[in-house]
Amino acid sequence: MSDDFARNLKFACSYYKSIAEVCRKVNLNRAQFNRYLSGKHKPSANAMMRLCDFFGVEEFEFLLPHDQFQRLLQVKPKSHPSSAVHLPEVDHLTQLHAAGSQSLEKYLGYYFEYYHSMSSPGKIIRTLVCLERQQHGVYYQRTERFQEDSQSIVCHGRYVGSVFFLTDRIFMIDYETITGYEVTQTILFPTFRNKVSRLTGLKLGASGSGERMPCCARVVYEYLGTNVDKRRALSLCGLYDAETDEIEDSLKKALRNTIDDGEWHFRARH
Predict the structure, then answer these.
(1) Is the per-residue pLDDT at 77 higher than 70?
(2) Which CATH number is 160's domain given?
(3) Same domain, 55 and 182
(4) Where is pLDDT greater, at 156 or 22?
(5) Residue 145: is its pLDDT beyond 60?
(6) Total domains, the chain
(7) Contacts of 121 by beta carbon, 8 Å cutoff, 6+ apart
(8) Which end of the chain is more exposed for a tag (fewer CB within 10 A), N or C?
(9) Can you tell me the distance from the alpha carbon of 48 to that of 201, in angstroms, rounded to the nearest whole number?
(10) Which domain holds residue 64?
(11) Among 25, 42, 75, where does a domain finish?
């Protein structure tokens, strides 16, 4: 973990009354937090996700050079403490987590997600997804990194959400955390093999830019393992031509959004 991360974390904490307040709100042990501040230890994926959510930044932003991070944080909207009001949806989500998280252990880890981009028609997008258990449920983060063309700036998107295994399907729902403009739902077939390789299903959402058209697309999750080089994995994320040689033919075939004769609905493919 770079020295910049420790300096950036200290700077982010300076917006609050004390380190103790930050630890309490993020639910992290103070002694462990001090090790992050000293630069001696790297946060786990779970701890890093909570820090990013609390401070409203991306993981890659926490690793930026300190001067650049300072400028970025100074222009970001400040996060507000969550309200103590009990929201009705909390009870429903708690019930779903209790019913639908016990069968997800073998699915935890990192995936490449593939589908035909909703904002860049004709392109396949590859994103990085991490599923992990937090307390009594399973949650995930989906990170986009893409460039429309060689002249465009690199765009980033971060989605966070919940995963539920209900009867014989995996249900995922998330929202985009940077703009708050999008909610997506994904339904995947589980695998009945001991080892997870690929999961297929459907994704429903709306393009994040342009006409904001609601779309449904076939999706493939390619399992990478429980430990990956995240920087390397993110460097492979982006937009690809539909016929690119950098994506396997079998995977491209599984992503085709075709409807066969006699089908009345747009259906997922095993």
Answers:
(1) no
(2) 2.40.128
(3) no
(4) 22
(5) yes
(6) 2
(7) none
(8) C
(9) 29
(10) 3-75
(11) 75
The answer to whether 176 and 182 have CB atoms below 8 angstroms apart is yes
Q: What is the CATH number of the domain that holds 55?
A: 1.10.260.40
User: Rounded to whole angstroms, how far apart are CA atoms 193 and 164?
Assistant: 19
Token digits for 207? 């393009």
> CA 41 to CA 33: how far, in whole Å?
9
Does residue 80 belong to any structural domain of this protein?
no
What tokens does 81 get? 């403490």
pLDDT in tens, 167-219: 899 999 999 887 788 899 999 999 988 899 999 999 999 887 677 889 999 99
Chain-centre distance for alpha carbon 23: 23
Q: Of 46, 75, 104, which one is at a domain's C-terminal end? A: 75
Do 142 and 218 lie in one domain? The reply is yes
Residue 128 and residue 12 share a domain:
no
Which residue type does 64 have?
L
Cα R_g (the chain), whole angstroms: 20
